[in-house]
Amino acid sequence: MWKEKDGKLVQSFKFHDFTEAWDFMNQVAQLVEKVDHHPTWCNTYNKVQIELTTHDAGNTITQKDRDLADGIDKILLAK
């Protein structure tokens, strides 16, 4: 699901509508606050694009990014 591109883990998600996309973002926000590792993301209507990289490691992919990607996937699987 997640792809490595330009030193980042990237993924795009598409939902039924804006409300569903926003609900997903709220759930992800709770997770990222808990693990203190924040993504770069963009939301347009029913689409959410997420990029994960570790800034303090020189903007490279680290285990923190892979763990967060796994956590985000678990949020989707729970739906």
Question: What do these coordinates show?
Answer:
With 79 residues, the protein is of the alpha+beta class. The protein has one domain: Transcriptional coactivator/pterin dehydratase (Gyrase A, domain 2, 2-Layer Sandwich), CATH 3.30.1360.20. Helices cover 42% and strands 27% of the residues. It has 2 helices and 4 strands. Helix 1 packs across helix 2. The protein is globular, with a radius of gyration of 12 Å. The mean pLDDT is 96.
Concise synopsis of the structure shown:
This protein is α+β, with helices and mostly antiparallel strands.
Write the layout of secondary structure elements.
Elements: E1 3-5, E2 8-14, H1 18-35, E3 40-44, E4 47-52, H2 63-77
Antiparallel strand pairs: 1-2, 2-4, 3-4
Helix pairs in contact: 1-2
Entry keywords:
79 residues; alpha+beta; Gyrase A, domain 2; 2 helices; globular
Strand order of the largest sheet: 1-2-4-3
Structural class, by secondary structure, is: alpha+beta
CATH topology annotation: Gyrase A, domain 2
Elements, N to C (H/E): EEHEEH
Low-confidence stretches: none
Query: What share of residues is helical?
Result: 40-55%
Please tally the helical runs, counting DSSP H or I stretches of 4 or more residues. 2
Question: What is the CATH architecture annotation?
Answer: 2-Layer Sandwich
Count of the domains: 1
